[in-house]
Write the structure tokens for this entry.
Amino acid sequence: MSYIAKPKIIHGGLSRNELGLTIRDYEGGLSTLCAGCGHDSVTAALVQAFFELNVPPHMAAKISGIGCSSKTTAYFLGGSHGFNSVHGRMPSVATGAHAAHGGLSVIGISGDGDSLSIGLGQFGHAVRRNLDMCYVIENNGVYGLTKGQFSASADKGSKLKKGDINELPPLDPVQMAIVQGGTFVARGFSGDKEQLVPLLKAAIAHKGFALVDVISPCVTFNDHTESTKSYAHTREYYHQAVHVDYVEPREEIKQKYKAGEAVTVDMHDGGSVLLRKVSKDYDPTDRVSALQYVNTRASKGEIVTGLLFIDEDEPDLHTINRTSKVPLRDLPYEQLCPGQKGMDKVNARYR
Amino acid sequence: MSYIAKPKIIHGGLSRNELGLTIRDYEGGLSTLCAGCGHDSVTAALVQAFFELNVPPHMAAKISGIGCSSKTTAYFLGGSHGFNSVHGRMPSVATGAHAAHGGLSVIGISGDGDSLSIGLGQFGHAVRRNLDMCYVIENNGVYGLTKGQFSASADKGSKLKKGDINELPPLDPVQMAIVQGGTFVARGFSGDKEQLVPLLKAAIAHKGFALVDVISPCVTFNDHTESTKSYAHTREYYHQAVHVDYVEPREEIKQKYKAGEAVTVDMHDGGSVLLRKVSKDYDPTDRVSALQYVNTRASKGEIVTGLLFIDEDEPDLHTINRTSKVPLRDLPYEQLCPGQKGMDKVNARYR
Amino acid sequence: MSDKENRLNNFVIRLANVNGTGSASANNLLMKSIFRMGIPVTGKNYFPSNIQGLPTWYEIRVSGDGYLARAGRTDIMVAMNAQTYGQDLKQLDAGGYLIYDSSWPREKQFTREDVTVLGVPLAKMCNEAFTNPRARILMKNMVYVGVLSALLEIDEKVIHALIEEMFAKKEKLIPANKQAIAMGKEYALEHFNCPLDTKLKALDKTKNHIMIDGNTASGLGCVYAGATVAAWYPITPSTTVMDSFKSFCKQFRENPESGERDYCIIQAEDELAAIGMVLGASWNGARAFTSTSGPGVSLMGEFLGLGYFAEIPAVLIDVQRVGPSTGMPTRTQQSDIMPAAFASHGDTKHVVLFPANPKECFEMAINSFDLAERLQTPVIVLQDLDIGMNDWMVEEFNWDGAYQPDRGKVLNEKELEEAAAFYRYLDIDGDGIAARSYPGVHKKGAYFLRGSGHNKFGGYTENSDEYQEVLDRLLVKWETAKTLVPKPVLTKAKKKTKIGLISSGGCDYAVLEAMDRLAAQNIFIDYLRVKAFPFTQEVEAFIESHDQIYVVEQNRDAQLKSLLILETKATKDQLISILDYAGMPLAARVVVSAIDEHLAKGAVA
Amino acid sequence: MSDKENRLNNFVIRLANVNGTGSASANNLLMKSIFRMGIPVTGKNYFPSNIQGLPTWYEIRVSGDGYLARAGRTDIMVAMNAQTYGQDLKQLDAGGYLIYDSSWPREKQFTREDVTVLGVPLAKMCNEAFTNPRARILMKNMVYVGVLSALLEIDEKVIHALIEEMFAKKEKLIPANKQAIAMGKEYALEHFNCPLDTKLKALDKTKNHIMIDGNTASGLGCVYAGATVAAWYPITPSTTVMDSFKSFCKQFRENPESGERDYCIIQAEDELAAIGMVLGASWNGARAFTSTSGPGVSLMGEFLGLGYFAEIPAVLIDVQRVGPSTGMPTRTQQSDIMPAAFASHGDTKHVVLFPANPKECFEMAINSFDLAERLQTPVIVLQDLDIGMNDWMVEEFNWDGAYQPDRGKVLNEKELEEAAAFYRYLDIDGDGIAARSYPGVHKKGAYFLRGSGHNKFGGYTENSDEYQEVLDRLLVKWETAKTLVPKPVLTKAKKKTKIGLISSGGCDYAVLEAMDRLAAQNIFIDYLRVKAFPFTQEVEAFIESHDQIYVVEQNRDAQLKSLLILETKATKDQLISILDYAGMPLAARVVVSAIDEHLAKGAVA
Ligand SMILES: Cc1ncc(C[n+]2csc(CCOP(=O)(O)OP(=O)(O)O)c2C)c(N)n1
Ligand SMILES: Cc1ncc(C[n+]2csc(CCOP(=O)(O)OP(=O)(O)O)c2C)c(N)n1
Ligand code: SF4
Ligand code: SF4
Ligand SMILES: [Mg+2]
Ligand SMILES: [Mg+2]
């Protein structure tokens, strides 16, 4: 059980990031999830990603819906504000929060139930608005917290322990996000931290809506042999289509690749993302190509992972809105109120 | 104004369908939409389609949300039950209605606001369930009834009369439906009745969820030059990718085409659909190909129309549920109630 | 009912049109001309829930005495809609005038002996004078305004000035419009006995006043309140609140050089998203609001409960239309009172404000943010469609430069730095309100907000005592709210009386008129208009000091009365309902006759 | 509180476990054994809103006298959870027994002088006896059941029979489980003075009874009601309603040969969709329902208003958890009473039923469909979590073969054929209900349903009179509803009294116990349990005949009392609230002490 406390003592040997913080400063409360739950691994990857990105914890805002996955906002970044909202509506809360202050790093945590059932509409619209946030779906094919019903991401033919078989096609957040205008679309696996951490880092650094769909098995309700969201199944059908490395603003890109093998995308924060493709017939910076690739592989039952599509040039919500540089919530009242002078104009108009 | 009454007199010369009904029997109340509204043309096409398909009006069920488009259920099939529900929730009402009696022809009418904003989630789930219905989106890029705000299908760069420019990417119901597992995905144009009527007929005949996205200009709020959903713009960028003919069960397929030029898909009602493709690099019976084709063309600003994807083999909601042949609502109570015998078993279990 | 004697500056014109035919601006011109002549006036639009082709009516009440409620009578009917001609004729009061388009013959059955019918061949005249087909339709409206200007004696200079303002940006339309006015005027002067007995005479009663609708005023109020984030989904009749906010933001909140905007308006995908955005923005320290109508309030229930329980400020402007369900979206009602007060499952109560006129729409928009942030809870402004969508004469707006928004208990960087510890839900001073912190200000400010059980330290709990402690504190906050919400307005009768009347919002105009009429009958009633829920001690005092209190409201189920019963010391017998809920604004006569009847019954019993 | 003398068949065992450790079946075995010994018993599960690793308690009340409410005391504590050990020890009543796992030393601070501590090295014993690691955890539970079987004198045959039933499908597990029981029993016999004073003695009081939870009974009721379409979205604590419906449908409604199903259950994408599906199915003639909890009810508001105004039957089972917002999903409350009764914007009122035990959950599931179809309106069954999720002893279910569903006024093919005309909203016989027709039956039956304004003929309207006529008819229907809903249950005091008590739902058990205890104090109170809203004339009569009435309910804001005030002739003074709302089921002592206190105050005053 994961409630057994890890000591919060800082070992002398723990490394510190540029802010002088150790990884412990990025941890949160103790997890109350089941031992072995994939979500706890995602939590660990997020801790690592924020630590490595040198984000001051209080400059991040964690927002989630309802579900086992959504609970995890309490388990990382204890030094950040957290907002555990209502089921399926995290995107709208994140939108409002981001509107008020575009300078915070907004991290949204959701589940497949939360985002693809009740939240399907809000999810699509957050994608469309290119809301500048990192949006993580901890995808286990079931509703964990309500005891294991199929979610909309359940694959055709997947079977529950109790015997029910899902006969509906899965909703794939990756394909939907590409079709809906998403600008950063990635998939990871909670069992592959090595891939997940750079994906999350790139997603956090991305200026715009960054989807990271993480296959994150539910050990209690969906990790048996007939499940297609189990650790075993995911490992078997797992396909890394694009390796990704996030390169810090000040770092140099050390490795050299042959032409066509790797693509570098510059990020708005000054860093860059290095993409190494496994397959040649696929360009992750081209929407049509990315969609085709993912769709084709999915139709063969493959679980394609990596940073599958990226477009760093689309304007985000604030860019489109031409919002003032000073965060809205920090604007002085005097600047917001048109005063008597404004009133005179109004009165004149309605006389 | 379209409120000027058409005489309801049956001309001696009006042709009758197999049920002995004339097209007048498929009309409804007088339209209260603006003169020239695209939706009225869709209404007319629906009247024609149902007439030609020989559907007894009382065996159809019309369901809609809220909007100018959704109002149109009152303007066709006056002899059918109609259900003008709440905004964005037509799919759920249709699902319930269809669950109760799978033998009715369910026709759902919605708008782009109704289906792609507030209704985006329900839309996706109706697609995924392969609900056996004909789902029409009368797509004008704006909210007509609330006076012309942009909807989520508004194209990037489209401009409102008042001057607002839309800078968000459009949600394309066609691409979404293909990605979400849709089994019949079509697009038409209210200005092209010749194409629309057979599309609607095929959609009504399809066993499963049939989407017909109809570009249907709003003459009052979105038919000016800077609009991309105007009659003029649609005509200009209009591209018929697949010609479709619906062939009645008893009819023979008369025209002969060269191999590769046409595909025949057998429908569950015994009829068939004849697809003539314009482009060779595209197979409307292959999901990956269809998606790629539509996505590529859309990225070039083309409005691809026709029956863009069809899969007649996927099971619909009732097939998956193995629902009794007799409609659920017609099952006699005696068959539904387990009686004292059942009670004895229950009592034994809980003793 | 008016009789011939007093129709000077005292009558009602009703204009029956087809929507989409451009009558709105002509009717507005007519109304505005009267206003500029210094005569108190209101204009009401009864429009269909449709864009083009259905009947629509515009009603102008002229009242030298300044009574601005719906009069409930018609003295002059301009019958431009063939579809409703019969009905319009019927609605005209005896002794009234009917103006119609005589280009085509009237049907025989549509005649009445007791009214004067004035035919003007509007279509013919316009077809002769204008060539453009659209102009032929539009100008008919201007011609009847011209006709009326002769019949009623409207100052021509005023009309011309208004036309010039109207078409300031399309100057070349001015001559044609003036011509149409002149055509109408000439025709009337030539064919009718001008002026009528029903006519105007300039006064000086509209100085320092403006004509504005409530929704515009609300949007303006949100600008002055310093709201920066707005999220909404279009819905009649609240859409113009956001239109107004947007247009004033464009005017006042955009940097002319950089184009930078000091606001962010998000058209949400639906109402659930809109209120979610508001909560997210408020949590993050912005003043944020949404506007909607009944169906939207229903959809916002879950989030409103979160706002209540997790204590997040939020402002929601609900412009009430006729319910239940889709109802009649373009008709007025006050039927969201209980639904707003108790929105959401579980034990929830929300602060509700009831503006009675556009001026209060403006003021209460500002109040609502102050209250929401001070009380850390959603505040719902319940506006009647009749107030929100129609033009009302109100005093000019003046701005108190000393006003500073009340942002409530928010710890700033320094306070957080110095604090020993910060606990989000710990009430230190006993007013039921704990301090909050914004994200991104200081690391000590971090807390975890949740709608699930939490204790006063902000920790998750499933412990009964801890849970109850928090829930009970919200009742303490409710008591605090009673001391902060706007106080009611008392209009004392000329004589001491034990009879009272309580009402709210848009009923105010009709009730005030009714009070005068009743006083003329020697019936004296003290009138208290409540401006907010929960009710303040003034409301309690009023109830205590009156034996019998009429509660006037525009809904079927006596929702305001229900709140009074549940949340004050009023006894049930004490309160007598006067209900009017068929979608029309309240008329004084409804109140007068209900009270007359009730008192008569009491006298008999 | 119990004293030593009467602990025979009269005590409370509380078992403190960690969830996900398999304690549920052991605890159930313990409870069921007592039941099979003929002794009245209840079992309550206090579980966390989480899947694994958090504290969970199971509470068994043994009551030879048949009192089944939460006792609010603990006589035996089985403390299996190290996390809550201190708290559990504290909760034990003086004179009680604490059983704990003595495999490891207890911490010093956790001791008490006034209780008997019985250590059993459960982990050690299981580690020695079993090799499989999961078995080592699971069997600890069986061992403590064995220990208790010796301490309390549970019939070994009964335990063995139950184990055999439990593992009927996994027979090979039977020996190990029996072994674990035996291990515990032996250990206890060897180390403790068995039996305790707190012990069992077989009775004959559970014959013809079953142990079942309310949600299972509701699901069964829906099967017997002939419901064919169900749409839902998972939410605690209502999920098991649909689990039950599904499992009984599988048992009774599937054709064994063809596999054809006489039902269709749709897991909707959310609650808005679920209620939309129910309305669609009901409109199309099926009996359809959904089950949810508070947050779902909030989301269903808009559709419920449509159901009310367009007059569509619908059944909604709301298993109430602690609100507001997400609240405490696994704790009990009655706080959706007002939100359910007035769900949606505009003037709406809904029929609400309040089952008090699983038997009524079954019956009212059936009532709800009859009412919904007769009244053509949504009916909400408000179940308490405590009733829905816990096992209760109720009489066996018997089925009245003569029952036929009341499908209400529905015109069939022949009636439509013969009808001169069919108007959907025309009330012919004055009960406020018009006949409806199903799609696909006859062409004359076609009508257009809308939530917007409509007249009695079913046509669209924006006309005030036509609109009001329809809205007012719904009030006539409301009166009809009062004559149709289940009547309240009156439990008269032994002596004539002017003091009454009104309560509803899951409070019943505690109130009945309280009445007996008060009677023993010579305090006599008539008790009326309301089963439905709107209130019937029996409720009015009860109110009229009692001067002072306590209203007992489990919410903060006195929601039931509010409805009584608003919808009956009760005066406000007449009703005195007793509120208990911290998430635990009501205990009789709460009622007794509130009444004692109130009466004492009255005596002084
Ligand atoms: C409005 C509402 N409906 C239903 C629920 C119950 N509920 C809680 S979590 C959940 C599903 C969670 O699934 P998912 O998002 O996949 O998270 P997981 O637990 O699998 O990580 C549901 C249905 C709720 N809390 N609120
Ligand atoms: C819950 C709710 N929100 C908002 C509205 C207001 N409303 C009515 S129709 C409509 C949009 C209609 O747009 P669309 O579906 O595209 O139909 P169109 O009028 O363009 O045909 C809106 C927002 C409503 N009726 N209900
Ligand atoms: S139930 Fe599943 S998703 Fe929830 S915590 Fe346990 S393993 Fe994780
Ligand atoms: S407003 Fe637009 S969509 Fe609505 S009826 Fe008029 S033209 Fe059609
Ligand atoms: Mg999940
Ligand atoms: Mg539209």
